[in-house]
Amino acid sequence: xxxxxxxxxxxxxxxxxxxxxxxxxxxxxxxxxxxxxxxxxxxxxxxxxxxxxxxxxxxxxxxxxxxxxxxxxxxxxxxxxxxxxxxxxxxxxxxxxxxxxxxxxxxxxxxxxxxxxxxxxxxxxxxxxxxxxxxxxxxxxxxxxxxxxxxxxxxxxxxxxxxxxxxxxxxxxxxxxxxxxxxxxxxxxxxxxxxxxxxxxxxxxxxxxxxxxxxxxxxxxxxxxxxxxxxxxxxxxxxxxxxxxxxxxxxxxxxxxxxxxxxxxxxxxxxxxx
Length: 274
Known about the structure:
- Helices cover about 55% and strands about 15% of the residues.
- The protein contains 12 helices and 8 strands.
- The model has no long low-confidence stretch (mean pLDDT about 95).
């Protein structure tokens, strides 16, 4: 992995995941800095990772080659305006993982003409298995694209989008996706109780089934439809269960859910960009 000076503004869970992933992939600890207002969190970051910790956002913005903004969307305007002068002088690559903050809006808050990559990881980054979509504005160089990809690839899959407008759909699909799978697991565990299985037995069986199914799909060149058909024997138990789900409108319900999530992402982007 190529090394460059990377600074994180915000030391929460996602920043910790990315820092841990970078170090596990051979990134030099001495090139990683993070600002965090909470003194105890700063101490834990330094102790856990052996990296530089700072209080000043302006200081880190003035020295980083890559500046990753890992703050809540509601805080982004204040932080961006706070570091704008340092960013204008230093001209780092900026990576934002804040949902709903459009690249042109962030660029305006930072003073304009900034190289910005917007990234949408999901919570599976906590275990190094995120699905992340990225989009770069026109001021991002090829080298900077490689830098951004290497950072997000440290915690899982990283894919580039052709247009920023697709980010709302990604938010609905993979950004919110872990909650959908967890909801299905939750429902299955509740249903298992009605079948007479104890809670811990059901939990372990569901976890391993979810893991095994994802692993099987990842290692196969065939799509989910064909894989499902192969484990659904006509007239069998799986067929009967799937038929109940299909007849109950599960496909339509999921489509409505993703559309609702995408619509909400669009609404939030408008609100946050005002």
